[in-house]
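Notes on consecutive records. When two proteins share a document, each keeps its own sequence and its own C-alpha coordinate line. Never mix them. Below: protein one.
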Amino acid sequence: MRKLENKTAIVTGGSRGIGANLCTSLAAAGASVVVNYASNASAAAEVVSQIESAGGKALAVQADVAESADVRKLFDVAEETFGKVDILVNNAGVVHYKTIEDTTDDEFARIMRINVNGVFYGMREASQRLADGGRVISISTSAALMFLPTYGPYCASKGAIEQLSRSLAKELGPRRITSNIVSPGPTETEMFLGNNKEEKIDRMRKLAALGRLGKPEDMGPVIVFLASEDSGWITGQVIPVNGGTA
Protein backbone atom coordinates (compact mmCIF):
# COMPACT_ATOMS: atom_id res chain seq x y z
CA MET A 1 0.00 0.00 0.00
CA ARG A 2 1.20 3.51 -0.82
CA LYS A 3 0.48 4.92 2.62
CA LEU A 4 2.36 8.16 1.97
CA GLU A 5 0.80 9.19 -1.34
CA ASN A 6 0.88 12.99 -1.81
CA LYS A 7 3.28 13.42 1.15
CA THR A 8 6.69 15.08 1.02
CA ALA A 9 9.57 13.89 3.19
CA ILE A 10 12.96 15.38 3.97
CA VAL A 11 15.60 12.83 5.05
CA THR A 12 18.84 14.29 6.38
CA GLY A 13 21.92 12.20 5.77
CA GLY A 14 19.99 10.32 3.10
CA SER A 15 22.77 9.35 0.71
CA ARG A 16 24.18 6.26 2.44
CA GLY A 17 23.54 3.53 4.99
CA ILE A 18 20.31 3.69 6.97
CA GLY A 19 19.44 7.07 5.46
CA ALA A 20 19.53 5.77 1.88
CA ASN A 21 17.17 2.92 2.78
CA LEU A 22 14.82 5.31 4.55
CA CYS A 23 14.64 7.42 1.38
CA THR A 24 13.81 4.47 -0.87
CA SER A 25 11.32 3.06 1.66
CA LEU A 26 9.46 6.36 2.00
CA ALA A 27 9.39 6.76 -1.78
CA ALA A 28 8.08 3.21 -2.25
CA ALA A 29 5.22 4.15 0.10
CA GLY A 30 4.35 7.08 -2.15
CA ALA A 31 6.22 10.05 -0.66
CA SER A 32 8.22 12.57 -2.66
CA VAL A 33 11.64 12.61 -1.01
CA VAL A 34 14.30 15.26 -0.53
CA VAL A 35 17.56 13.32 -0.20
CA ASN A 36 19.93 15.45 1.85
CA TYR A 37 23.67 14.88 1.69
CA ALA A 38 26.68 16.67 3.14
CA SER A 39 29.43 15.87 0.63
CA ASN A 40 28.81 12.66 -1.35
CA ALA A 41 26.86 13.97 -4.33
CA SER A 42 27.28 10.77 -6.37
CA ALA A 43 25.82 8.59 -3.61
CA ALA A 44 22.84 10.94 -3.24
CA ALA A 45 22.33 10.92 -7.02
CA GLU A 46 22.29 7.12 -6.96
CA VAL A 47 19.54 7.12 -4.32
CA VAL A 48 17.51 9.55 -6.43
CA SER A 49 18.08 7.36 -9.50
CA GLN A 50 16.84 4.27 -7.66
CA ILE A 51 13.69 6.09 -6.56
CA GLU A 52 12.98 7.53 -10.00
CA SER A 53 13.63 4.18 -11.70
CA ALA A 54 10.93 2.70 -9.47
CA GLY A 55 8.48 5.43 -10.50
CA GLY A 56 8.94 7.71 -7.48
CA LYS A 57 9.87 11.36 -7.06
CA ALA A 58 13.07 12.52 -5.39
CA LEU A 59 15.58 15.34 -5.35
CA ALA A 60 19.12 15.46 -3.92
CA VAL A 61 19.98 18.59 -1.95
CA GLN A 62 23.38 19.38 -0.46
CA ALA A 63 23.20 20.92 3.01
CA ASP A 64 25.24 20.87 6.21
CA VAL A 65 22.68 20.25 8.95
CA ALA A 66 25.00 21.90 11.46
CA GLU A 67 24.27 25.21 9.70
CA SER A 68 20.80 26.60 10.38
CA ALA A 69 20.73 28.41 7.02
CA ASP A 70 21.34 25.12 5.22
CA VAL A 71 18.47 23.46 7.07
CA ARG A 72 16.19 26.33 6.04
CA LYS A 73 17.34 25.72 2.48
CA LEU A 74 16.23 22.09 2.69
CA PHE A 75 12.71 23.19 3.57
CA ASP A 76 12.77 25.97 0.96
CA VAL A 77 13.72 23.55 -1.82
CA ALA A 78 11.19 20.96 -0.68
CA GLU A 79 8.39 23.53 -0.68
CA GLU A 80 9.44 25.02 -4.02
CA THR A 81 9.64 21.59 -5.66
CA PHE A 82 6.85 19.60 -4.03
CA GLY A 83 4.62 22.30 -2.53
CA LYS A 84 4.85 21.41 1.16
CA VAL A 85 6.68 19.32 3.77
CA ASP A 86 4.85 16.60 5.72
CA ILE A 87 7.65 14.45 7.13
CA LEU A 88 11.09 15.24 8.56
CA VAL A 89 13.48 12.39 9.28
CA ASN A 90 16.49 13.58 11.31
CA ASN A 91 19.00 10.91 10.34
CA ALA A 92 22.26 12.77 9.70
CA GLY A 93 24.89 12.18 12.35
CA VAL A 94 28.45 11.17 13.13
CA VAL A 95 29.86 8.53 15.46
CA HIS A 96 32.64 8.95 17.98
CA TYR A 97 34.37 6.10 19.79
CA LYS A 98 36.77 7.53 22.36
CA THR A 99 36.90 7.65 26.11
CA ILE A 100 35.79 10.87 27.75
CA GLU A 101 39.38 11.37 28.91
CA ASP A 102 40.74 11.20 25.35
CA THR A 103 38.05 13.29 23.64
CA THR A 104 39.30 16.73 22.63
CA ASP A 105 37.35 19.98 22.79
CA ASP A 106 37.09 20.04 19.01
CA GLU A 107 35.89 16.44 18.79
CA PHE A 108 33.20 16.98 21.41
CA ALA A 109 32.09 20.22 19.76
CA ARG A 110 31.86 18.52 16.35
CA ILE A 111 29.66 15.66 17.51
CA MET A 112 27.34 18.04 19.34
CA ARG A 113 27.24 20.47 16.41
CA ILE A 114 26.18 17.79 13.93
CA ASN A 115 24.19 15.37 16.09
CA VAL A 116 22.41 17.85 18.36
CA ASN A 117 22.44 21.25 16.65
CA GLY A 118 21.55 19.62 13.34
CA VAL A 119 18.48 17.93 14.82
CA PHE A 120 17.49 21.05 16.75
CA TYR A 121 17.59 23.17 13.58
CA GLY A 122 15.47 20.59 11.78
CA MET A 123 12.92 20.46 14.60
CA ARG A 124 12.75 24.24 14.81
CA GLU A 125 12.13 24.54 11.09
CA ALA A 126 9.56 21.73 11.22
CA SER A 127 7.74 23.51 14.05
CA GLN A 128 7.18 26.49 11.78
CA ARG A 129 6.70 24.84 8.40
CA LEU A 130 5.50 21.24 8.68
CA ALA A 131 1.95 20.63 7.46
CA ASP A 132 -0.66 19.89 10.15
CA GLY A 133 -0.79 16.16 10.83
CA GLY A 134 2.89 15.88 9.90
CA ARG A 135 5.61 13.66 11.33
CA VAL A 136 9.03 14.26 12.86
CA ILE A 137 11.15 11.12 13.25
CA SER A 138 14.66 11.30 14.70
CA ILE A 139 17.30 8.58 14.80
CA SER A 140 18.95 7.79 18.12
CA THR A 141 20.84 4.65 19.20
CA SER A 142 20.21 1.66 21.45
CA ALA A 143 23.77 2.10 22.68
CA ALA A 144 22.40 4.87 24.91
CA LEU A 145 21.01 2.13 27.16
CA MET A 146 24.10 -0.07 27.17
CA PHE A 147 26.59 2.09 29.14
CA LEU A 148 29.50 1.18 26.88
CA PRO A 149 32.99 2.62 27.31
CA THR A 150 34.10 5.00 24.51
CA TYR A 151 30.45 5.79 23.66
CA GLY A 152 29.96 8.63 26.17
CA PRO A 153 29.99 11.73 23.92
CA TYR A 154 28.07 9.94 21.15
CA CYS A 155 25.37 8.70 23.52
CA ALA A 156 25.21 12.11 25.19
CA SER A 157 24.34 13.62 21.80
CA LYS A 158 21.64 11.02 21.20
CA GLY A 159 20.22 11.51 24.70
CA ALA A 160 19.80 15.20 23.90
CA ILE A 161 17.93 14.29 20.72
CA GLU A 162 15.53 12.09 22.67
CA GLN A 163 14.72 14.89 25.11
CA LEU A 164 14.18 17.37 22.30
CA SER A 165 11.85 14.91 20.61
CA ARG A 166 9.71 14.47 23.71
CA SER A 167 9.34 18.21 24.19
CA LEU A 168 8.51 18.68 20.52
CA ALA A 169 5.75 16.08 20.80
CA LYS A 170 4.04 18.19 23.46
CA GLU A 171 4.56 21.43 21.58
CA LEU A 172 3.22 20.22 18.24
CA GLY A 173 0.53 17.84 19.50
CA PRO A 174 -2.26 20.43 19.09
CA ARG A 175 -1.52 20.40 15.34
CA ARG A 176 -1.63 16.58 15.21
CA ILE A 177 2.09 16.50 14.43
CA THR A 178 3.84 13.58 16.09
CA SER A 179 7.49 13.41 17.16
CA ASN A 180 9.13 10.05 17.76
CA ILE A 181 12.55 8.45 18.00
CA VAL A 182 13.77 5.30 16.27
CA SER A 183 16.64 3.70 18.16
CA PRO A 184 18.63 1.22 16.03
CA GLY A 185 21.02 -1.31 17.45
CA PRO A 186 24.40 -2.04 15.80
CA THR A 187 23.70 -1.99 12.08
CA GLU A 188 25.68 -3.08 9.02
CA THR A 189 26.49 0.33 7.64
CA GLU A 190 29.69 1.77 6.25
CA MET A 191 29.90 4.03 9.30
CA PHE A 192 29.60 1.20 11.85
CA LEU A 193 31.71 -1.40 10.05
CA GLY A 194 34.39 1.11 9.07
CA ASN A 195 34.86 2.45 12.61
CA ASN A 196 35.07 -0.83 14.52
CA LYS A 197 37.40 -3.81 14.60
CA GLU A 198 36.06 -7.26 13.72
CA GLU A 199 36.33 -8.41 17.35
CA LYS A 200 33.96 -5.67 18.48
CA ILE A 201 31.61 -6.22 15.55
CA ASP A 202 31.37 -9.92 16.41
CA ARG A 203 30.73 -9.09 20.08
CA MET A 204 27.90 -6.75 19.12
CA ARG A 205 26.44 -9.38 16.81
CA LYS A 206 26.31 -11.89 19.67
CA LEU A 207 24.57 -9.41 21.98
CA ALA A 208 21.47 -9.44 19.80
CA ALA A 209 18.73 -11.87 20.83
CA LEU A 210 18.21 -12.58 17.12
CA GLY A 211 21.89 -13.34 16.63
CA ARG A 212 22.85 -10.82 13.94
CA LEU A 213 23.58 -7.20 13.28
CA GLY A 214 20.80 -5.02 11.99
CA LYS A 215 20.55 -4.15 8.32
CA PRO A 216 19.52 -0.76 6.92
CA GLU A 217 16.42 -2.37 5.43
CA ASP A 218 15.26 -3.38 8.93
CA MET A 219 14.59 0.30 9.63
CA GLY A 220 12.54 1.27 6.59
CA PRO A 221 9.22 -0.40 7.52
CA VAL A 222 9.32 1.18 10.99
CA ILE A 223 9.96 4.64 9.55
CA VAL A 224 7.14 4.23 7.03
CA PHE A 225 4.77 3.20 9.83
CA LEU A 226 5.72 6.20 11.97
CA ALA A 227 5.38 8.51 8.96
CA SER A 228 1.89 7.22 8.11
CA GLU A 229 -1.57 7.78 9.50
CA ASP A 230 -1.34 4.36 11.17
CA SER A 231 0.89 5.86 13.88
CA GLY A 232 -1.30 8.84 14.65
CA TRP A 233 -1.73 7.90 18.34
CA ILE A 234 2.00 7.41 18.95
CA THR A 235 4.12 10.42 19.91
CA GLY A 236 6.97 11.26 22.24
CA GLN A 237 8.17 7.65 22.16
CA VAL A 238 11.47 5.86 21.63
CA ILE A 239 11.02 2.82 19.36
CA PRO A 240 13.92 0.32 19.67
CA VAL A 241 14.78 -1.49 16.43
CA ASN A 242 17.68 -3.57 17.64
CA GLY A 243 16.97 -7.30 17.46
CA GLY A 244 16.93 -7.51 21.24
CA THR A 245 20.39 -6.01 21.73
CA ALA A 246 19.46 -3.70 24.61
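Protein two starts on the next line and is unrelated to protein one.
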Amino acid sequence: MLHQRHITTSPVEVGKTTPFPLVQIANRNTLLHLIGLNTYHQFGQQYNPHFFFQQFSETLATENKQVIHIWEDIWRQKPAIVLSRLNAMVGLSERIPARLTQIRRVDRPLATQFLEMSHLQAVTLSKYRYGLYLPQRYFRVLSPEFQEQIPANESELLVALATFSLPRRIERDGKLYRSVELVRFANRLNCTVVGGLDKLLKGFINEHRPDDIMTYADRDWSDGRSYEKLGFTRLILTEPQQFWLNPEKMERYYPHRLPHEVSTHRLLPVYNSGSIKFVKLLI
Protein backbone atom coordinates (compact mmCIF):
# COMPACT_ATOMS: atom_id res chain seq x y z
CA MET A 1 0.00 0.00 0.00
CA LEU A 2 1.02 3.64 -0.44
CA HIS A 3 3.42 4.29 2.42
CA GLN A 4 3.86 7.53 4.34
CA ARG A 5 7.34 7.94 2.84
CA HIS A 6 5.78 8.42 -0.60
CA ILE A 7 3.90 11.60 0.28
CA THR A 8 4.59 15.03 1.74
CA THR A 9 1.75 15.85 4.10
CA SER A 10 2.35 19.59 4.43
CA PRO A 11 0.61 21.90 1.93
CA VAL A 12 2.62 22.56 -1.21
CA GLU A 13 3.17 26.12 -2.39
CA VAL A 14 1.88 26.17 -5.94
CA GLY A 15 1.15 29.79 -6.70
CA LYS A 16 -2.64 29.38 -6.54
CA THR A 17 -4.89 29.02 -3.52
CA THR A 18 -7.20 26.11 -2.85
CA PRO A 19 -9.36 25.40 0.20
CA PHE A 20 -8.59 21.67 -0.03
CA PRO A 21 -5.52 19.82 1.32
CA LEU A 22 -2.79 19.38 -1.24
CA VAL A 23 -0.02 16.81 -0.78
CA GLN A 24 2.84 15.76 -3.00
CA ILE A 25 4.03 12.30 -3.93
CA ALA A 26 7.70 12.11 -3.00
CA ASN A 27 10.22 12.53 -5.84
CA ARG A 28 7.44 13.26 -8.35
CA ASN A 29 5.76 16.38 -9.71
CA THR A 30 2.42 14.83 -8.77
CA LEU A 31 0.05 16.47 -6.31
CA LEU A 32 -2.95 14.88 -4.61
CA HIS A 33 -5.86 17.31 -4.24
CA LEU A 34 -8.07 15.93 -1.45
CA ILE A 35 -11.64 17.20 -1.88
CA GLY A 36 -13.71 16.83 1.28
CA LEU A 37 -17.43 17.30 0.77
CA ASN A 38 -18.04 19.58 3.77
CA THR A 39 -15.35 21.96 2.56
CA TYR A 40 -16.66 21.68 -0.99
CA HIS A 41 -20.18 22.59 0.17
CA GLN A 42 -18.87 25.73 1.89
CA PHE A 43 -16.70 26.57 -1.11
CA GLY A 44 -19.66 26.18 -3.50
CA GLN A 45 -21.74 28.62 -1.46
CA GLN A 46 -19.13 31.36 -2.00
CA TYR A 47 -17.78 30.61 -5.48
CA ASN A 48 -18.86 29.04 -8.73
CA PRO A 49 -16.89 25.75 -8.83
CA HIS A 50 -17.76 24.94 -12.46
CA PHE A 51 -14.24 25.42 -13.88
CA PHE A 52 -12.24 25.55 -10.65
CA PHE A 53 -10.72 22.05 -10.72
CA GLN A 54 -10.01 22.12 -14.44
CA GLN A 55 -8.32 25.52 -14.24
CA PHE A 56 -6.36 24.39 -11.20
CA SER A 57 -5.02 21.40 -13.14
CA GLU A 58 -4.20 23.45 -16.22
CA THR A 59 -2.44 26.17 -14.22
CA LEU A 60 -0.19 23.68 -12.48
CA ALA A 61 0.46 21.89 -15.76
CA THR A 62 2.29 25.04 -16.91
CA GLU A 63 4.69 24.34 -14.01
CA ASN A 64 5.04 20.71 -15.12
CA LYS A 65 2.97 19.52 -12.16
CA GLN A 66 0.20 16.93 -12.40
CA VAL A 67 -2.80 17.19 -10.10
CA ILE A 68 -4.93 14.21 -9.13
CA HIS A 69 -8.29 15.21 -7.67
CA ILE A 70 -9.45 12.66 -5.12
CA TRP A 71 -13.06 13.27 -4.13
CA GLU A 72 -14.29 12.07 -0.76
CA ASP A 73 -17.21 10.16 -2.27
CA ILE A 74 -14.96 8.35 -4.76
CA TRP A 75 -12.57 7.41 -1.95
CA ARG A 76 -15.38 6.10 0.24
CA GLN A 77 -17.03 4.18 -2.60
CA LYS A 78 -13.91 2.71 -4.24
CA PRO A 79 -10.93 2.94 -1.86
CA ALA A 80 -9.26 -0.21 -3.21
CA ILE A 81 -9.20 1.16 -6.77
CA VAL A 82 -7.93 4.57 -5.65
CA LEU A 83 -5.12 2.94 -3.66
CA SER A 84 -4.32 0.61 -6.55
CA ARG A 85 -3.85 3.53 -8.92
CA LEU A 86 -1.79 5.52 -6.45
CA ASN A 87 0.40 2.52 -5.66
CA ALA A 88 1.00 2.00 -9.38
CA MET A 89 2.31 5.57 -9.61
CA VAL A 90 5.03 4.86 -7.05
CA GLY A 91 5.90 1.42 -8.41
CA LEU A 92 4.21 -0.68 -5.75
CA SER A 93 1.93 -2.74 -8.01
CA GLU A 94 2.58 -6.15 -9.55
CA ARG A 95 4.42 -5.44 -12.81
CA ILE A 96 3.66 -7.90 -15.59
CA PRO A 97 5.36 -7.69 -19.01
CA ALA A 98 2.72 -7.65 -21.76
CA ARG A 99 4.84 -10.08 -23.81
CA LEU A 100 3.96 -12.82 -21.29
CA THR A 101 0.22 -12.36 -21.84
CA GLN A 102 -2.20 -13.66 -24.45
CA ILE A 103 -4.83 -11.43 -26.06
CA ARG A 104 -8.37 -12.50 -26.89
CA ARG A 105 -11.96 -11.37 -26.65
CA VAL A 106 -13.80 -11.21 -23.34
CA ASP A 107 -17.54 -11.80 -22.89
CA ARG A 108 -19.72 -9.01 -21.52
CA PRO A 109 -20.39 -10.41 -18.01
CA LEU A 110 -16.69 -10.96 -17.30
CA ALA A 111 -15.78 -7.54 -18.75
CA THR A 112 -18.42 -5.88 -16.56
CA GLN A 113 -17.18 -7.69 -13.46
CA PHE A 114 -13.56 -6.77 -14.23
CA LEU A 115 -14.33 -3.08 -14.76
CA GLU A 116 -16.45 -2.86 -11.62
CA MET A 117 -13.49 -4.20 -9.64
CA SER A 118 -10.74 -2.22 -11.40
CA HIS A 119 -12.08 1.03 -12.95
CA LEU A 120 -13.20 4.21 -11.19
CA GLN A 121 -15.80 5.22 -13.76
CA ALA A 122 -19.17 3.62 -14.35
CA VAL A 123 -19.31 0.59 -16.63
CA THR A 124 -20.68 1.37 -20.10
CA LEU A 125 -21.79 -0.95 -22.85
CA SER A 126 -19.22 -1.54 -25.59
CA LYS A 127 -19.31 -3.56 -28.79
CA TYR A 128 -15.82 -5.07 -28.49
CA ARG A 129 -13.98 -6.26 -25.38
CA TYR A 130 -10.39 -7.50 -25.46
CA GLY A 131 -8.38 -8.84 -22.54
CA LEU A 132 -4.83 -9.83 -21.71
CA TYR A 133 -4.50 -13.18 -19.95
CA LEU A 134 -1.48 -14.28 -17.96
CA PRO A 135 -1.02 -18.09 -18.32
CA GLN A 136 -0.45 -20.12 -15.17
CA ARG A 137 3.15 -20.90 -16.16
CA TYR A 138 3.95 -17.20 -15.71
CA PHE A 139 2.30 -16.77 -12.31
CA ARG A 140 5.87 -17.01 -11.02
CA VAL A 141 6.46 -13.36 -12.02
CA LEU A 142 3.91 -12.35 -9.38
CA SER A 143 4.83 -11.84 -5.74
CA PRO A 144 4.16 -14.77 -3.37
CA GLU A 145 1.55 -12.64 -1.56
CA PHE A 146 -0.32 -12.02 -4.80
CA GLN A 147 -0.09 -15.66 -5.88
CA GLU A 148 -1.77 -16.70 -2.65
CA GLN A 149 -4.87 -14.75 -3.70
CA ILE A 150 -5.28 -16.74 -6.95
CA PRO A 151 -7.57 -19.81 -6.71
CA ALA A 152 -5.56 -23.04 -6.96
CA ASN A 153 -7.41 -24.26 -10.06
CA GLU A 154 -6.92 -21.10 -12.14
CA SER A 155 -5.13 -21.82 -15.42
CA GLU A 156 -4.85 -18.12 -16.36
CA LEU A 157 -5.54 -14.67 -15.00
CA LEU A 158 -7.22 -11.73 -16.73
CA VAL A 159 -4.82 -8.86 -16.01
CA ALA A 160 -5.91 -6.04 -18.36
CA LEU A 161 -8.98 -5.12 -20.37
CA ALA A 162 -9.89 -2.63 -23.12
CA THR A 163 -13.34 -2.00 -24.55
CA PHE A 164 -14.17 -0.39 -27.90
CA SER A 165 -17.23 1.08 -29.61
CA LEU A 166 -18.75 0.29 -32.96
CA PRO A 167 -17.07 2.18 -35.85
CA ARG A 168 -18.61 5.49 -36.85
CA ARG A 169 -18.07 7.77 -39.84
CA ILE A 170 -16.40 10.97 -38.63
CA GLU A 171 -15.42 13.91 -40.82
CA ARG A 172 -12.11 15.62 -40.05
CA ASP A 173 -10.62 18.30 -42.28
CA GLY A 174 -13.02 17.42 -45.07
CA LYS A 175 -12.17 13.70 -44.98
CA LEU A 176 -14.29 10.81 -43.69
CA TYR A 177 -12.74 8.43 -41.18
CA ARG A 178 -13.98 5.10 -39.93
CA SER A 179 -13.49 5.95 -36.28
CA VAL A 180 -13.64 3.76 -33.18
CA GLU A 181 -13.63 4.90 -29.56
CA LEU A 182 -11.47 3.28 -26.90
CA VAL A 183 -14.14 3.41 -24.20
CA ARG A 184 -12.44 1.89 -21.16
CA PHE A 185 -9.03 0.53 -20.25
CA ALA A 186 -8.04 -0.95 -16.91
CA ASN A 187 -5.33 -3.04 -15.35
CA ARG A 188 -6.31 -5.67 -12.83
CA LEU A 189 -6.48 -4.32 -9.29
CA ASN A 190 -2.96 -3.90 -7.86
CA CYS A 191 -1.35 -4.85 -11.20
CA THR A 192 0.39 -2.95 -13.99
CA VAL A 193 0.75 -4.71 -17.33
CA VAL A 194 3.79 -3.01 -18.83
CA GLY A 195 2.93 -2.34 -22.48
CA GLY A 196 -0.57 -3.70 -21.94
CA LEU A 197 -2.60 -0.96 -23.61
CA ASP A 198 -0.24 -0.92 -26.58
CA LYS A 199 -0.71 -4.66 -27.08
CA LEU A 200 -4.49 -4.41 -26.78
CA LEU A 201 -4.62 -1.55 -29.28
CA LYS A 202 -2.47 -3.42 -31.79
CA GLY A 203 -4.58 -6.55 -31.44
CA PHE A 204 -7.81 -4.64 -32.01
CA ILE A 205 -6.37 -2.67 -34.95
CA ASN A 206 -5.08 -5.79 -36.67
CA GLU A 207 -8.49 -7.41 -36.49
CA HIS A 208 -10.79 -4.48 -37.28
CA ARG A 209 -8.65 -2.03 -39.32
CA PRO A 210 -10.23 1.29 -38.25
CA ASP A 211 -9.01 4.55 -39.76
CA ASP A 212 -8.48 6.04 -36.31
CA ILE A 213 -9.07 5.43 -32.62
CA MET A 214 -10.23 8.24 -30.35
CA THR A 215 -10.45 8.25 -26.57
CA TYR A 216 -10.77 10.50 -23.54
CA ALA A 217 -8.38 10.91 -20.61
CA ASP A 218 -10.09 11.73 -17.32
CA ARG A 219 -8.52 15.08 -16.33
CA ASP A 220 -9.18 14.39 -12.64
CA TRP A 221 -6.54 11.66 -12.87
CA SER A 222 -4.52 12.05 -16.04
CA ASP A 223 -2.63 14.62 -18.08
CA GLY A 224 -2.78 12.30 -21.11
CA ARG A 225 0.96 11.76 -21.48
CA SER A 226 0.55 7.98 -21.53
CA TYR A 227 -1.66 8.31 -24.62
CA GLU A 228 0.80 10.62 -26.33
CA LYS A 229 3.52 7.99 -25.85
CA LEU A 230 1.29 5.57 -27.79
CA GLY A 231 0.94 7.91 -30.76
CA PHE A 232 -2.28 9.71 -29.81
CA THR A 233 -2.66 13.42 -30.54
CA ARG A 234 -4.39 15.79 -28.14
CA LEU A 235 -7.43 17.45 -29.72
CA ILE A 236 -9.43 19.39 -27.10
CA LEU A 237 -10.06 19.75 -23.40
CA THR A 238 -13.76 19.20 -22.81
CA GLU A 239 -15.91 21.25 -20.46
CA PRO A 240 -16.18 19.93 -16.89
CA GLN A 241 -18.92 17.36 -16.39
CA GLN A 242 -21.58 18.15 -13.80
CA PHE A 243 -22.90 15.49 -11.43
CA TRP A 244 -25.52 15.59 -8.71
CA LEU A 245 -23.97 14.14 -5.55
CA ASN A 246 -25.86 12.74 -2.57
CA PRO A 247 -23.44 13.43 0.32
CA GLU A 248 -25.26 11.04 2.66
CA LYS A 249 -25.23 8.01 0.34
CA MET A 250 -22.05 9.06 -1.49
CA GLU A 251 -23.80 8.48 -4.80
CA ARG A 252 -23.36 10.46 -8.03
CA TYR A 253 -25.93 10.95 -10.76
CA TYR A 254 -25.59 12.31 -14.27
CA PRO A 255 -28.13 15.14 -14.70
CA HIS A 256 -29.81 13.28 -17.57
CA ARG A 257 -29.97 10.05 -15.51
CA LEU A 258 -31.31 11.47 -12.27
CA PRO A 259 -34.03 9.09 -10.96
CA HIS A 260 -37.51 10.64 -10.97
CA GLU A 261 -37.94 10.02 -7.25
CA VAL A 262 -34.71 11.86 -6.38
CA SER A 263 -34.96 15.58 -5.68
CA THR A 264 -31.98 17.88 -6.20
CA HIS A 265 -32.91 19.83 -3.06
CA ARG A 266 -30.35 18.06 -0.87
CA LEU A 267 -27.87 17.17 -3.59
CA LEU A 268 -24.57 18.90 -4.30
CA PRO A 269 -23.80 20.01 -7.87
CA VAL A 270 -20.19 18.91 -8.38
CA TYR A 271 -17.92 19.38 -11.39
CA ASN A 272 -14.94 17.31 -12.44
CA SER A 273 -11.96 18.59 -14.41
CA GLY A 274 -13.35 17.55 -17.79
CA SER A 275 -11.56 15.19 -20.17
CA ILE A 276 -8.81 15.46 -22.76
CA LYS A 277 -9.90 14.13 -26.15
CA PHE A 278 -7.25 12.23 -28.12
CA VAL A 279 -7.10 10.61 -31.54
CA LYS A 280 -4.66 8.12 -33.06
CA LEU A 281 -4.67 8.28 -36.87
CA LEU A 282 -4.03 4.97 -38.60
CA ILE A 283 -4.16 5.97 -42.27
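For the record: The first strand starts at residue 7 and ends at 8.
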